[in-house]
Task: inverse folding
């Protein structure tokens, strides 16, 4: 098997695992199901990932790195701080919209299996620090220039993540209470995307 074939097989397993995890949750997804969906054997899953826990970790890390790569790319595309913040909010929202069950899956898994929390913590600690350090330094510079009110970078990140994630955590309630079909919820989500940008940008003002 060539290196390219190895990468393709590993990617197929990851894609199948991600889809099943989001659909059924970690606990209710077996390696047998993943193998069937990926069109491979359980032996291949063991060869690439050893255990289901390591496969879970690989899927989570893939999502975290996707989020990080979006932030890094935006930093290179936007010239001003306000433009970069706006694009960060929008891009994070888009990741949530493409993976609407991900916030619930993470919260439910950590609540049900507290041992997952150190895994998430370790993954965050392994992320390249320059990305966050640059973000914090830019925020401090904007505060010093009087364009942004005093705040910590962690507060801004928590506001961004919680606003965007909460919409999708509340999706089952919102669709039931307001009788929203898929198209109506998507329309609401796109509206909320703009609202979240407006809310956060206003919160930055001195």
Result:
């Amino acid at each position: 098997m060539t290196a390219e074939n190895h990468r393709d097989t590993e990617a197929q397993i990851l894609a199948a695992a991600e889809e099943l995890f989001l659909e059924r949750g970690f606990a209710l997804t077996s390696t047998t199901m993943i193998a069937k969906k990926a069109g491979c054997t359980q032996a291949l899953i063991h060869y690439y990932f050893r255990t289901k826990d390591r496969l879970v970790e690989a899927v989570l890390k893939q999502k975290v790195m996707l989020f990080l790569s979006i932030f890094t790319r935006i930093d290179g595309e936007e010239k001003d701080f306000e433009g970069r913040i706006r694009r960060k909010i929008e891009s994070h929202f888009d990741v949530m919209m493409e993976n609407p069950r991900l916030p619930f899956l993470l919260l439910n898994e950590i609540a049900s299996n507290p041992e997952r929390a150190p895994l998430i913590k370790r993954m965050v600690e392994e992320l390249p620090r320059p990305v966050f350090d640059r973000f914090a330094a830019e925020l401090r510079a904007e505060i010093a220039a009087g364009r942004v009110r005093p705040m910590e970078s962690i507060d801004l990140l928590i506001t961004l993540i919680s606003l965007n994630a909460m919409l999708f955590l509340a999706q089952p309630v919102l669709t039931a209470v307001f009788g929203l079909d898929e198209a109506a919820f998507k329309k609401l989500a796109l509206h909320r995307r703009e609202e979240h940008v407006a809310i956060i940008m206003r919160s930055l003002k001195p």
